[in-house]
UniProtKB/TrEMBL annotation:
<dbReference type="GO" id="GO:0008718">
    <property type="term" value="F:D-amino-acid dehydrogenase activity"/>
</dbReference>
<comment type="similarity">
    <text>Belongs to the DadA oxidoreductase family.</text>
</comment>
<protein>
    <submittedName>
        <fullName>FAD-dependent oxidoreductase</fullName>
    </submittedName>
</protein>
<feature type="domain" description="FAD dependent oxidoreductase">
    <location>
        <begin position="24"/>
        <end position="418"/>
    </location>
</feature>
<dbReference type="Pfam" id="PF01266">
    <property type="entry name" value="DAO"/>
</dbReference>
<dbReference type="InterPro" id="IPR006076">
    <property type="entry name" value="FAD-dep_OxRdtase"/>
</dbReference>
<dbReference type="GO" id="GO:0055130">
    <property type="term" value="P:D-alanine catabolic process"/>
</dbReference>
<keyword id="KW-0560">Oxidoreductase</keyword>
<dbReference type="InterPro" id="IPR036188">
    <property type="entry name" value="FAD/NAD-bd_sf"/>
</dbReference>
<dbReference type="GO" id="GO:0005737">
    <property type="term" value="C:cytoplasm"/>
</dbReference>
<dbReference type="GO" id="GO:0005886">
    <property type="term" value="C:plasma membrane"/>
</dbReference>
């Protein structure tokens, strides 16, 4: 099993360099959101320190499918994704590197009439945002996916969507952020965020205290733990998503596709990223009892998306709760340095068979590598992106529910603009942190 960690050697600050005593902004979390935010803050001349408890882009940011889609998103996310697509189109030029960007569209193929009607129901959202999303006929699907060999009832297609390579994108943002003066420090977690008189004043790290009046918490599945230290309850949970890379096969399409129960995108070298449709694993632990009341009303409606497992994760969780465990010694803000997340081999077998059934020409294509990632979810299926919180000076980007990779550039830019000028440039009310405390939470269109 390989984990596709981005090759970021030489980007982070050497371990023997002391941390700065004071900066303008501390970013907790060295994934795509954190690295993008560091870059855009650096462009604005802001002094930035980014802390990563393990490796830059070492978790979900390098393990995503690589879809860059507006299609089938919650209405609250569409304006952000429309703005993000605008950034993606020129991002390789701006960051001066190849990102694997292909602007060939996104297609969800309907296997039956019920599925077709479900996809078509999203057209009203697309029209309200003047998107170029259309329903394709079965013959039009075959033009997009030559050789598709199983019965289908057309599909939902957005021509302006695309794909990119997760292992390249965070790396590019990190490199450019460093060139702009940001310090990116690996193997240094945040033990807590210091607050005085309702204002963020600094961060306690594994290597000492750093003063800062603004802290961006973009720590993925650790975010709820850091916020809990501040007395903020975020009903965040995690699920496990599995992805594989294949050997090179015959050229098919550059379209990001879900069809016949498999999600896939093909790179220019002919290899595919594949996943078992939109299924995720829920490895049950005591932690899943926390905030269960937020999720319970929607679980039945979305039951087909989840595989509930009672496995070793429960014992691991129990061990981590013991005072002598490494997680307890590291503390809430760090908890687990570098979790090893096993892929679902059965699901990948299903995905590979589905790909070959749909495209018999891929008969010799085989899985070359596989990995899994911990996806941070929230009960309404949309993230928290907020820089107007209590305490003052706290900004948050978390809970992207498995579809955050495509939003990475715009999330970084939006937070940077918000912190630097006080104006995010977009209406962010539906993604505010306080919606949970206020009880203003709608049912999810999807849970990941």
């Amino acid at each position: 099993m390989n984990t596709p960690v981005a090759a970021l050697a030489g980007v982070s600050t050497p371990q023997d360099n002391p941390l700065p005593r004071e900066v303008d902004v501390v970013i907790i979390g060295g994934g795509l959101m954190g690295c993008a935010c560091a870059y855009y803050l650096g462009k604005a001349g802001v002094k930035v320190l980014l802390l990563e408890k393990s490796l830059l882009a070492g978790q979900q940011s390098s393990r995503a499918w690589g879809f860059v889609r507006q299609q089938s998103r919650d209405e609250a996310e569409v304006p952000l994704m429309q703005a993000s697509i605008g950034l993606w189109r020129s991002l390789e030029r701006e960051l001066q590197t190849d990102l694997g960007w292909r602007n060939d569209g996104c297609l969800f193929v309907a296997g039956n009439e019920e599925e077709r009607e479900g996809y078509a129901s999203w057209l009203s959202v697309a029209r309200s945002f003047s998107m170029n999303t259309v329903m394709l006929s079965p013959s039009e699907v075959l033009k997009k996916l030559p050789g598709y060999a199983v019965p289908q009832h057309g599909g939902l297609f957005t021509a302006s969507d695309g794909q990119a390579e997760p292992t390249l994108v965070a790396r590019a943002f990190a490199m450019r952020a460093r060139e702009l003066g940001a310090q990116l420090v690996e193997h240094c977690g945040a033990r807590g965020i210091d607050v005085a008189a309702g204002q963020v004043v600094g961060v306690e790290t594994e290597r000492g205290y750093v003063k800062a009046k603004t802290v961006v918490c973009a720590a993925g599945v650790t975010t709820f733990r850091l916020l809990r230290l501040l007395g903020i309850e975020l009903p965040q949970q995690l699920v496990r998503g599995t992805v594989a890379r294949t050997t090179s096969g015959p050229t098919l399409s550059g379209i990001s596709t879900i069809a016949n129960g498999v999600g896939f995108r093909q790179r220019l070298d002919g290899s595919f990223n594949i996943a078992d449709d939109a299924h995720v694993d829920v490895d049950m632990t005591l932690g899943h009892l926390r905030a269960l009341h937020w999720y319970a009303p929607s679980l039945w409606a979305h039951r087909k998306s989840f595989r509930f497992n009672l496995n070793g994760a429960c014992l691991t969780d129990l061990h981590q709760r013991m005072p002598w465990s490494q997680a307890s010694r590291l503390g809430e803000g760090i908890h687990e340095r570098n979790p090893l997340i096993k892929p679902n081999e059965k699901g990948l077998g299903t995905a590979m068979r589905a790909l070959k059934a749909a495209f018999p020409g891929q008969v010799d294509t085989q899985i070359a590598d596989r990995w899994a990632g911990a996806i941070d979810v929230l009960p309404d299926g949309i993230p928290v992106i907020d820089a107007q919180t209590s305490p003052r000076g706290l900004a948050i980007a978390t809970g992207f529910c498995g579809h955050g990779f495509a939003m990475g550039p715009i999330v970084g830019k939006t937070l940077a603009d918000w912190i630097d000028s006080g104006d995010p440039g977009l209406d962010m009310r539906q993604l505010r942190l306080s919606r949970f405390a206020e009880g203003d939470v709608k049912p999810p269109s999807s849970l990941f």
